[in-house]
## 1
Amino acid sequence: MATQSDSAELLVGGAYYGGWKRLSVSRSIEQVAGTFTLEVTDRWAGQQAAWPVRPGARCELRLAGERVMSGYVDVAEPSFEDQGSQLRVEGRDSTGDLVDCSAIYKSGQWRGVTLDSIARDLLKPFGVGVVVQADVGERFASFSIQQGETVFECLERAARLRAVLLVSDGAGNLVITRAGNTLAPVTLEEGVNILAGRASFSWKDRYSRIVVKGQARATDDFFGEQAAGPSAAGADDVIDRYRPLIVLAEDHGTAATLADRARWEASVRAGRGNRGIVTVQGWRRSDGALWAPNVLVTVRSPTLYLDAPMLIVGCNYRLDEEGTFTDLTICRREAFELLDGIGVSRLKAKLNHKTQREKRKKGDDWSAL
């Protein structure tokens, strides 16, 4: 029988439904909407009515007594066979509509407003709130919806220019934030509380040389090729074969600021290409809190070459016949240090540090730790 520490309940139509036999719940700072998949065989204990879950229904998901998602049912799949009936339910946070739906707002253009103001204007029809947890930066002189883009695509483009992340808080709100710097009061250690772990070190999105090209404002007398902006290059010293990439900056900039952007591009690509997944028992940390993304946790694993604080990028809570587990996706926090437009990168000093450059040349997979 499920206990409070491993129970999962879905609230639909004012009633909670538990007894789920299998589940997978995913939350991440890389996705603006959390997702869930639940499965149950036969009807819930004490429930005589037919399956009450329908697509489009407003719902709330609780794990171990805590709300982790508030949104809508996307898919309901009832089925039956000789052994009985089954229901499979898929759903997402309310912010899932921002991923699916087109961005629409009056003329589609704003002048002299901040990022959170744009977000509130676009999200109001969806009933999704905006929570600001980071400095949203200066006002946009002008910002427009691009033809055909979704709400999330529009906001993500603006957020990238203001060095912030867009995530869900599990309560039906969009959160404007940055990579977390709070260290959890627990340690994950191979052979102690880590059940399994794996790392992936990829060169797929890494390049030996990255050239960032800026833009220059054209005028009646300054246009065409003459209006081409400055450019700057950065390098990933670990990539030892010819792999060039040209990146077009989102905004205007000087050669100096573009050089910072190029260094940042190489660093972030390296950080996001190197990540790991560790599996722990249950959904709660040893201090009683639910595992959550955007928190630092110390990881000690000789097999994964780790002994350092790592950022929890995502949490996948699981339930199956073997019990409850949480898969934690981890990487360097620097992988989510976002650059403010094409301004000065906060990573510049770290990337230029002699020791870090030497470590990168040696090819360490977790070179910035």
Note: The domain at 97-177 is CATH 3.55.50.10 (Phage tail protein beta-alpha-beta fold).
## 2
Amino acid sequence: MKRFFVALLICAWLLAADVKMTRDGDRVAVEIDGQPFTTLFMGQDTTKPYLHPLRAASGTVVTRGYPMEPAEGERRDHIHQRGLWFTHGDVNGFDFWGNDPTQQGPKKGRIVLNKVQQVKGGKQAGTIQASFDWLDGQGGRLLTETRRMVVRAHPTLRIVDLDITLEAAREVKFGDTKEGSFAIRLAAWMEEPDKRAPEVPKRTGKMVNAEGQETERNAWGKRSPWMDYCGEKDGEKLGVAIFDHPGNPKHPTFWHARGYGLFAANIFGERDFLRDKQLDGSVTLKAGDRLRFRYRVVIHPGDTASANIAGLYQQYAAGK
């Protein structure tokens, strides 16, 4: 059965459409089969690179529009949570997480574009590779980040592979905090049901991890190799899964996943997640040391079971 599933997956990829990458200054627009998928924002007017919006193969947007393109019924909280991004809330005491342009101060860091090394479309996949500098509040460089993003075409799925390497420019400490790190802020209809939320759109979301733990109450702060967050809009069932690569530091990751649509893999926040002040999940790099993180994002139709998220993760873990 597993071999049959793999064969189907390979056949589907062979039939997949082109991925087109179009750079316009400090933005790169991504299209699949002539339809918009997402845009990478990385210019001087941003404080961290992010993808916005993310769409399913059907075209339905699965990420929150606020603050870039606010939509009716969206929560107006956490203005720094834009699309899909990678940062951390405590790097040598500087906040790269809650660092929206409206949240600036001496302890806020910025991630700025250094160089775009590759923007290439193609059959079945397209690639963006760029380097960024993580700057402290005084403009000093803490880290150099090299990020490679591969968007893979598929008839029913949208797949993004990210390979991120952080190299320390001097001694750097990633502090223990839940505010991090690889994250997505989902559309309002994908949030978990909440009486405090606006009535429209209806909140239909449910998160589940590889161990079968569901909802924020049971899955927040737990370790797991993957997590999926599903919901329904106008009769269309969709989900977004994040896969933590087996080679990542401290695999399997902890999850900072909230019912209001935040969905983040974070290896550093042990004290917060395990609610033990004696713990220290921080990581220190000496100058020249590196940390490498790899993730896969899968936007899929159906729920966790019907999309076979567990099987898709096994293929990813096997390097496929």
Note: The first helix runs from residue 2 to 14.
## 3
Amino acid sequence: MKNVIELKNLTKFYGKARGIIDVSFSVQEGEIFGFIGPNGAGKSTTIRTMLGLIHKTSGFASIFGMDCENEGHIIRKDIGYLPSEVFYYDDMKVIDLLKYSASFYGKVDMDRIRSLSFILDLDLNRKIDDLSYGNKKKVGIVQGLIHNPKLIILDEPTSGLDPLMQQKFFELMQEENKKGATILFSSHILSEVQKLCSRVCIIKEGRVIKVENISNMINTTYKKIRLNFISEIPETMIQLDGVSAVKKNQTELSFLYKGDINAITHQLCRYELQNVLIEEPDLEEIFLHYYSKDEPVQDSGQELP
């Protein structure tokens, strides 16, 4: 399967300040790919640099096999992009703005506009200035989808949407994906990424620290273990190889464990326990593990310009 997006060592500095450093990942055709990290990690900078909206410092980015910097005007015709912040002409009505946006892609498809607006419960006759932040986000979603793009890039798309509307949005994205659209979904809300995406890229302080199948991260990499001791928690349990993200409260100990499950169960036989729970961690817990102090990002050795 061919790659729709390919980034190789994409780097952006703002003067001497860090933007992103050596970001590399690819997104396959037909995939819903997650791009996760907290605010300030470099998600938006990566997307804007990739789209040619800001100039890269170094590295390479291609979409549909074309160079994003030199052929961006061609590439963007088949991309639907929702930025993290949306700004519009306040005096325009929603329908006028959407018609104007659609005109850049050729014929205005009113059926498409009405269908998307109905799904998202968006009033086409209201002025932009009268809309809440959440409704402005709906306008951005419709605006990004009206031309049936081959690639949909979403940067924090659900902020401002209530839970019911978020669910409608997820269903809409799944439908677009079934019709053939590739989706890059950037978010700091990990439960959303886990719900939609098959693979995920984790970014920390401007650098990629992991690209992995979500199923592998959850099912084969770590186990979440919670132990209830009859008496005091033994320090030897906390010091075991493979133990991280430790939390303890009187006689209860919980942690993530990476390693041979037989080794950890052998250790448990040495202690008196009231209860043992071993389960799969969710993506949130794995993500926090990657952001803990004991998982530093490796320095690429690249100096600031």
Note: Residues 39 and 288 are 14 Å apart (CA to CA).
## 4
Amino acid sequence: MTTMSAPVSDRTAPLLSLRGVNKSFGAVDVLRSVDLDVRPGKVTALVGDNGAGKSTLIKGIAGIHTFDAGGYTFDGNPVTVHSPKDSNALGISVVYQDLALCDNLDVVQNMYLGRELRKARLLDEDAMEARAKETLSGLSVRTLKSVRQQVASLSGGQRQTVAIARAVLWNSRLVILDEPTAALGVAQTEQVLLLVRRLADRGLAVILISHNLTDVFAVADEIGVLYLGQMVAQFDAKSVTSNQVVELITGGRSGDLGLKRPEDTASAPATGTDAGVQS
């Protein structure tokens, strides 16, 4: 198996495309007619206030939740994702905020946890170590002294690095990062953001979930804003200001971006949704 091979998808076409996605829990509509495009070689930031639906959306993409309705297209093909196994088979990896690392194991053991390589009936430690080093080298990671360090001895930024490297080890095509810089210091945050940028530069599609707009504007190519379960806008990160994004997050509208004004909705014919999405 060759690790970290760059995907060959057309970088102008979305790798992941969601259309009209809905998800409810009982009487609560958590996602309402959500559209999202995620392109290879791009970092797509997903932002929104607490309760906007970000976690539900990524769990639906990852197969932890099943969307109630809507289209899910991956690499141009309609797909059905009912479980994490389905999303993993497509090449989708998620690094959640808790990282799911085992402190008592070393870097190599964590990267191969549950997917250990074997030679006959024994663990192939040499092959796993070599491939772990190759993956970290491919990501230009130089902050680890040894791949045989126990994770318990690593800093927060180094732990994020291990979790991200584990996500891309198995030739992932889309990596979803849930608040990767939360609780990190300035230097560690910079290291993680550089790594996020490298993922996209290698051709992977990246979804970055973050409350920190400074981090978002530092690495994102596109930004999607969720407001009360609706994707009110998706746009080129260079086309908007931080203040406009804040207005979209808190009110669902900023000037001509986002939800239509009440007077516009009253005079316009019904279209089935009042969320304006721009690409």
Note: The radius of gyration is 20 Å.
